[in-house]
């Protein structure tokens, strides 16, 4: 089973961008930005807005990991 982990916090730190600034640039609510990495579901419009504001692909906002958990 594949699991994904958000890496927005890491991206913002690397680029020295504050969450509040990204929220303005992307036109999304700031709480969405602060919960991004912990969220398991994303609004597709917000997801693409964040990626576009950072100039990255959606895939670059996540790390995909293999999980040994059984799926029932």
Which structural traits does this protein have?
Cro/C1-type_HTH, 72 residues, Transcriptional regulator with XRE-family HTH domain, Lambda_DNA-bd_dom_sf, alpha+beta, single chain
Would you write up a description of this structure?
The chain starts with a strand and ends in a 6-residue tail after the last strand. α2 (19-26) packs across α4 (44-54). With 72 residues, it is α+β, with helices and mostly antiparallel strands. It has a two-stranded antiparallel ribbon. The mean pLDDT is 92. The chain has helices at 8-15, 19-26, 30-35, 44-54, and strands at 2-6, 62-66.
Concise synopsis of the structure shown:
The chain has about 70 residues and is of the alpha+beta class. Helices cover about 45% and strands about 15% of the residues. Strands 1-2 form a two-stranded antiparallel sheet.
Helix content percent band: 40-55%
Question: Main β-sheet: number of strands, strand sense, barrel status?
Answer: 2 strands, antiparallel
Globally, the shape reads: globular
* Helix/strand order: EHHHHE
> What's the oligomerization state?
single chain
Could you report the average pLDDT, rounded to the nearest whole number? 92
